[in-house]
Write a structure and sequence with these properties.
single chain, about 325 residues, alpha/beta, Rossmann fold, four-stranded parallel sheet, three-stranded antiparallel sheet, 16 helices, about 10% strand
């Protein structure tokens, strides 16, 4: 077995799990990780929060990876859909018509979406059967990527985001799918690393501490918000693509917040969620957390980052 399964006994989780809709969460730790080229001395991967659906996914390490794959990796709610749409268009000659006609989930399937629902256990098949070059999204930590990923090293973009922005966006996203608790309960669970795919800081740091992985381009949500053309130029260069100024202007327009929010191919919702909640692409702000969080919640999240990230260089990743 490639993974160790650990029951969550935290009193906060135990007390609230049925009320919040998280009763089937479990911590999962990779047991085989020697292939990961990480620079952290004596590194041992932490356990990550998933659901019990993970029991069905022991075949993750054996998944095939091809040299012409394009991967987007991230912790949830870090700007993943935004960078997926950018990467897909840049790699597909700015085919806006095709992008608008086909949902991003079909053009750029989510490798492990089956972890979220027993009805979606065939998600690996969607990726396996996709015509090459394949476009693949994943939120998996470095310790859980397929073994072949480290041999093949396909072109990959990793995107990160300020943890306070992630926390707020993740709450509203979860509320639209299954979550029935308050924001405060969610945040207290988040800093205890008991939200799906947590721990957050470890995910980001480990991707930035990989050795000899020039196949990975690192970008941030905040960088994209400040000056989108700069990120577009980096992504074009990364994939060896070049476009005219008028073509790029059309791309900037397509990737604007209003365009993304109004585009049904990327802004999907879950009609079966417990509440109507917020739209999938909600506000698209770099520092919207300042208006959404109380001073106490901001302090809690800041102290959490200080505790989890003692290295000053690593802490710059979370600014």
């Amino acid at each position: 077995m490639s993974f160790e399964y650990i029951e969550i006994t935290d009193p906060l989780y135990v007390e609230n799990k049925e009320q919040t809709g998280e009763e089937n969460y479990i911590m999962v730790r990779a047991k085989q990780y020697s292939d990961v080229p990480i620079k952290i001395p004596n590194w041992v991967p932490q356990a990550h929060c998933f659901t019990t659906e993970f029991y069905y996914f022991n075949n993750i390490p054996a998944s095939e990876v091809y040299p012409d794959d394009v991967w987007v990796l991230s912790y949830p709610k870090s700007g993943t859909t935004w960078i997926q749409e950018m990467a897909w268009l840049i790699c597909n000659d700015l085919n806006f018509e095709a992008a608008r006609a086909t949902k991003i989930s079909a053009r750029f399937p989510f490798l492990e979406i089956g972890l979220q629902s027993a009805a979606l256990h065939f998600s690996f098949k969607d990726v396996k059967d996709m015509p090459r070059p394949r476009f693949i999204k994943s939120h998996l930590p470095v310790s859980m990527l397929p073994k072949r990923y480290w041999e093949v090293k396909p072109k990959t973009i990793h995107i990160r985001r300020n943890p306070k922005s992630v926390a707020v966006s993740y709450f509203f996203h979860s509320q639209g799918i299954h979550y029935r608790g308050s924001m405060d309960t969610f945040l207290r669970s988040f800093v205890r690393e008991h939200q799906f795919y947590s721990p957050y800081h470890a995910h980001v740091i480990e991707y930035h501490e990989l050795r000899d992985c020039d196949n990975i381009l690192h970008v941030s949500f905040e960088e994209m918000k400040r000056y989108l053309p700069s990120v577009v130029r980096k992504v074009c260069q990364f994939f060896g693509k070049s476009y005219s100024k008028p073509e790029l202007e059309l791309l900037y327009q397509h990737l604007s917040f209003k365009s993304m929010r109004d585009n049904p191919a990327v802004n999907f919702e879950n009609p079966k969620g417990p509440t109507k909640g917020e739209p999938f692409i909600r506000k698209g702000e770099a520092d919207g957390w300042k208006k959404e969080l109380t001073p106490e919640q901001i302090h809690m999240l800041d102290e959490w980052t200080k505790e989890r990230v003692p290295n000053p260089e690593h802490r710059k990743l979370f600014e």
